[in-house]
Design brief:
By secondary structure, this protein is α+β, with helices and mostly antiparallel strands. It contains eleven helices and 24 strands. The structure holds adenosine-5'-diphosphate and magnesium ion.
Length: about 525
C-alpha cells in the first residue's frame, strides 16, 4: 500500500466511530520511507497510537563510518531521535480535537546519550518508533486532520530528521565523537586500574536542583597535581584530569564547597553525556552504584547481617524482610543488593545517609554497649569491602574524621577546587590516634545469592480492588505493589523505568500488553 491507499482508507472512515481507525492498520510506502501503523488507540483519550518509520539507511546519504562501531552507532541513533523530536515540535500543528489528538511523541533527549530502542538499525533499515494521537471531532474520526498529520506533517518531520542533507553535520559529528571518547576513557579506566576520571575543565554543577543543565559561569574542575592522569582519546587526543584509584576515597571539605556536586557528577558518569553538558569526560566504570538511605522502603529476604545483627526480639537479619525499613536497615539493604548484582564501586554521600549507619564514635560506644547496638557502622566495613570483595567506595564525609583510618585517598573540596589531603590526613591519624574500637566481629562475609521467584511476580491486580494512582515521580504499580524508583538516582530517563517494568512483566511470563 502507498500514500494514496492511506488517503483512500482515511476518507472512507471519516466521521465514523473512533474505533474504526483500526481499519488503517498496516504499512504504507512513501517516497523514501514507509510508515507502519502498528497499534491504534481505541479512543482519543487512550494511550496514543504506535507508529514506525522505516527507511533504507543506504538511501539517506549517511556515510557508513558513522555507524561502523557500537560506540558510533549508539550516539548516531540517539542523535536521530533528538532531531525527530525537535522536528515534531516544529512541524506538528499542536493539539487536534480532544484527548491526546495531534500529539507526536518519541523517547529522545536528556543530557545523556542513551542506547534507546526508539531508533534502531536493523541491517540496512533505520527504524523510528514513536507515538501519535490520532485526531477526532468529538468522538468521531477526523480524517482531514489525520491526513494532514500522516501525509504532510510527518513527511516534513521525517525529511528533517533522517535525510543526511537536512542534518547539521558538525553537530552530528560532535555528538558521535563525544560518545566515542567517553567510551574510550571508560575502557582506559579498566586498563589503568582506575574507577573514575574527571577531566580538567569539566563543569560539574547543574543550574538548579531540578535541572540537569550545566550551571553557567561555574568554576571548572581542575585536578590536584598529585592525582593527575592523562588518557588518550580517539577524537580529543590526550586528556588530563583526576584519576580515582580503587580502594576507599574520602571527599572532605566545608559545607557548600562542592563535595556533593563532585559525587553527583561521578554518579552520572556511568552514562556518556551530550556535547556542552560539561560532564562529557566525567567517567566512572560501569559497575558504579549510588547508595542512599531510603527509610520506608520494603525489603525482601536480604542478608544485611554484615551491617545489622541481633535486632530486638531476635528478628533474623540473614534473610531480612520488612514492609517499612529504617534509615539504617534500608541503607544496609541497598548496599547488599548492589553487591549481589556485581557492584564494584559504591558512591555514598553523608547528605543522604543514615548517621547511625555511617558512624558511631568513642563516646557513644562507651554509653551504649556493643551488645545493645545491632548496627556495625559502615566505617568498620568499608575497608573489608575492598580487601575481601574488591569493592571500592567513594564517600563524601565532611562530618567525621573517623574515616581517615580506612581511607586510601583523601580529597578536599575547597571553593569548588579539589586538593589532595592524603599526607595531612595521615599525619592527623598519627597525631590523634582514634580511640574508638572497631566493631567488626570478623570478616564481612560472603554475599548471599538470591533469585527472584517467578510466581512471586504478579503483574495483575485483583479485579475490583481499588487502587489510587501513585503520587507522581518515579513510582508505578506492578500488580498490587508499588514500585518506587525515586531513590535510584542513576535512572536517567522515564523510558528506563518503563523498561524495568516490562522486564518484570516478562520475567513473570505475562505477555499481555
Ligand atoms: P557540599 O556538598 O560541599 O555542601 P554542594 O556540592 O552541595 O556542597 O555545593 C554547594 C553549591 O555550590 C551548590 O549550589 C552547587 O551548585 C554550587 N557549586 C558546586 N560546585 C560548583 C562549581 N564548580 N562552580 C560553581 N558553583 C558550584
Ligand atoms: Mg553535600
Amino acid at each position: 500500500m502507498d500514500e494514496k491507499d492511506l488517503i483512500i482508507a482515511l476518507d472512507k472512515i471519516n466521521g465514523r466511530e473512533y474505533k474504526e481507525y483500526n481499519n488503517i492498520l498496516g504499512t504504507y510506502n512513501f517516497t523514501n520511507y514507509s510508515v507502519v501503523l502498528d497499534r491504534i488507540q481505541w479512543d482519543p483519550w487512550a494511550p496514543p497510537s504506535q507508529l514506525i518509520i522505516r527507511a533504507p539507511l543506504s538511501k539517506l546519504g549517511f556515510p557508513p563510518f558513522l555507524i561502523k562501531t557500537p560506540s558510533r552507532e549508539i550516539p548516531f541513533r540517539d542523535f536521530i531521535g533528538r532531531r525527530f523530536r525537535e522536528a515534531a515540535g516544529k512541524f506538528s500543528k499542536g493539539m487536534r480535537g480532544p484527548g491526546r489528538g495531534g500529539n507526536i511523541e518519541i523517547d529522545a533527549g536528556s543530557q545523556s546519550i542513551l542506547n534507546r530502542s526508539s531508533v534502531v538499525i536493523k541491517d540496512d533499515i533505520l527504524e523510528i518508533r514513536f507515538k501519535m494521537g490520532l485526531p477526532a471531532n468529538g468522538k468521531q474520526i477526523d480524517a482531514r486532520g489525520a491526513k494532514e498529520m500522516l501525509c504532510t506533517d510527518l513527511k516534513a518531520i521525517v525529511q528533517a530528521s533522517i535525510l543526511s542533507d537536512s542534518i547539521d553535520k558538525i553537530k552530528l559529528k560532535n555528538h558521535i565523537t563525544a560518545y566515542e571518547d567517553a567510551e574510550a576513557i571508560r575502557e582506559s579506566l579498566y586498563k589503568l586500574n582506575l574507577i573514575g576520571f574527571i577531566a580538567n575543565g569539566s563543569v560539574l554543577p547543574r543550574c538548579a536542583g531540578d535541572s540537569d543543565l550545566p550551571l553557567q559561569n561555574a568554576v571548572p574542575f581542575k585536578s590536584p597535581q598529585e592525582l593527575e592522569v592523562t588518557i588518550t582519546t580517539p577524537n580529543s587526543g590526550e586528556v588530563t584530569g583526576m584519576g580515582i584509584k580503587h580502594g576507599v576515597t574520602l571527599i572532605v571539605g566545608g559545607g557548600f564547597h562542592g563535595k556533593s556536586t563532585l559525587l553527583d557528577a561521578l554518579t552520572s558518569g556511568v552514562y556518556n553525556h551530550i556535547p556542552g553538558d560539561g560532564r562529557e569526560k566525567v567517567i566512572v566504570i560501569e559497575e558504579t552504584v549510588k547508595i542512599k538511605s531510603e527509610d520506608g522502603r520494603r525489603v525482601e529476604k536480604v542478608n544485611i547481617s554484615p551491617f545489622i545483627k541481633n535486632l530486638p526480639f531476635g528478628k533474623d537479619t540473614n534473610s531480612f524482610s520488612t514492609e517499612n525499613a529504617s534509615g539504617s536497615t534500608s541503607q544496609a539493604a541497598n548496599i547488599i543488593e548492589a553487591l549481589e548484582l556485581g557492584a564494584r564501586v559504591l558512591l555514598i554521600d553523608e547528605d543522604t545517609s543514615a548517621t547511625n549507619f555511617m558512624i558511631r564514635d568513642e563516646r557513644m560506644q562507651e554509653l551504649v554497649a556493643k551488645e545493645n547496638e545491632p548496627i556495625t557502622p559502615f566505617v568498620d566495613r568499608v575497608r573489608q569491602l575492598y580487601t575481601e570483595h574488591n569493592v571500592s567506595t567513594i564517600l563524601v564525609m565532611g562530618g567525621s574524621g573517623d574515616y581517615f583510618d580506612s581511607a586510601d585517598q583523601v580529597i578536599m573540596m575547597q571553593n569548588y577546587s579539589a586538593i589532595d589531603k592524603n599526607k595531612e590526613a595521615q599525619e592527623i591519624i598519627k597525631k590523634h590516634h582514634t580511640r574508638r574500637k572497631s566493631e567488626s566481629d570478623g570478616n564481612f562475609g560472603a554475599i548471599s545469592r538470591r533469585c527472584p521467584l517467578k510466581n512471586s511476580l504478579i503483574p495483575k491486580k485483583d479485579k475490583g480492588k481499588q487502587q489510587w494512582p501513585p503520587s507522581g515521580g518515579k513510582t508505578d504499580f506492578f500488580g498490587e505493589i508499588i514500585i518506587d524508583m525515586s531513590y535510584l538516582e542513576q535512572i536517567a530517563d522515564p523510558a528506563q523505568e518503563r523498561a524495568i517494568k516490562a522486564i518484570l512483566k516478562y520475567l513473570s511470563n505475562d505477555n499481555t500488553q
